[in-house]
UniProtKB/TrEMBL annotation:
PROSITE patterns: SH2, SH3. The keyword Lipoprotein applies. Signal peptide: none annotated. Keywords: Lipoprotein, SH2 domain, SH3 domain. It comes from the Eukaryota. Gene3D superfamilies: SH2 domain, SH3 Domains. It comes from Poecilia mexicana. This is SH3 domain-containing protein. Residues 60-106 form the SH2 domain.
Length: 106
């Protein structure tokens, strides 16, 4: 997921990475109970403070919606439009729904 830096940050530990306000950052790991995310900036990987950035969510990620709702969202879209949602039958997994002429759901 991409994020934009709201503030500049200077790393104080070897496993942290510095960035400037306005930098675009690739967040690669997010821990819910942590104050830090793992990110990549210009090929360097390390920790960044999560309160220094603003996440840019992917528009194709629908979160926890049902299969029926996914079908309803896609039925009027062009062929090939897709969304990813949290799996109803396998917690922690994801489901991919793609608008198709032949099948409304994969």
């Amino acid at each position: 997921m991409e994020a934009a830096a709201l503030f500049s940050f200077t790393a104080s530990e070897a496993d942290e990475i510095s960035f400037q306000k306005g930098d675009i950052i690739k967040v690669v790991e997010m821990e819910e109970d942590s104050f830090w995310f793992t990110a990549e900036i210009e090929g360097k990987r390390g920790f960044i403070p999560k309160n220094y950035i603003s996440l840019h969510p992917h528009l194709w990620f629908a979160g926890a919606i049902s299969r029926l709702e996914a079908e309803q969202r896609l039925c009027w879209q062009d062929t090939g439009v897709f969304l990813v949602r949290e799996s109803e039958s396998a917690p922690g997994e994801f489901s991919l729904s793609v608008r198709s002429v032949n099948a409304p759901h994969l």
